[in-house]
Amino acid sequence: MTDCPLCQTPGGELLWENNLLRIIDARDPLYPGFTRVIWKAHVAEMTDLSPTDQLTLFQAVLQIESLQRELLGPDKINLAAFGNMVPHVHWHIIPRWRDDAHFPQAVWAALPETDAHTRAAHQQRFHATAALIPAYHAAILDRFQS
Questions:
Q1: What is the CATH number of domain 5-145?
Q2: Which helix (H) or strand (E) holds 13?
Q3: What is the mean pLDDT of residues 40-45?
Q4: Which of 14, 95, 120, 143 could lock onto 10 through a cystine, CB 3.0 to 4.6 A?
Q5: Which backbone phi and psi does 70 adopt, to 5 degrees?
Q6: Helix, strand, or coil here: 38?
């Protein structure tokens, strides 16, 4: 589809791809580790995929979730597949912490008003997580290359 941003661009920093899907780092300024798994062919809904392709895609999502839990140690992982703004099958895998900037709200919610101490804690969380991202990216390559 010519006007679909996920058909025209990688959709973030490309970490790995094959002929069916790609894994990207969303490069979210508040959430290091925010990863997307994007089906390469333009389809709008999971049910547009064959059962085999559905399984392939969801297994990749679960592999990313597993790596995030193992390497980033979040309190929770959010999985989302909306497609309201970009009707192209893709999944968001977002590591969450009780002390992140939006918790317990969705990462797309408006940022709550915070004091300087809370903002400093958010920055500390961001930097601690960001330091783990090179190892996380390497683990994605290792897991999906094999």
A1: 3.30.428.10
A2: strand 13-17
A3: 95
A4: 14
A5: -70, -45
A6: strand
> What residues does each domain of the chain span?
5-145
Burial label, 120 (beta-carbon count in 10 A; 0-12, 13-18, 19+): exposed
Asked whether residue 1 carries a pLDDT value surpassing 70, the answer given is: no
Tell me which amino acid residue 22 is: R
26 contacts 6 by C-beta, under 8 angstroms = no
- The per-residue pLDDT for 143 is 96
* C-alpha torsion angle, residues 69, 141, 47, 9 (rounded to 10): 120
Sorted by sequence, the CB contacts under 8 Å of residue 82 that are 6+ apart come out as 92
Q: Note whether 80 and 94 are within 8 A (CB).
A: yes
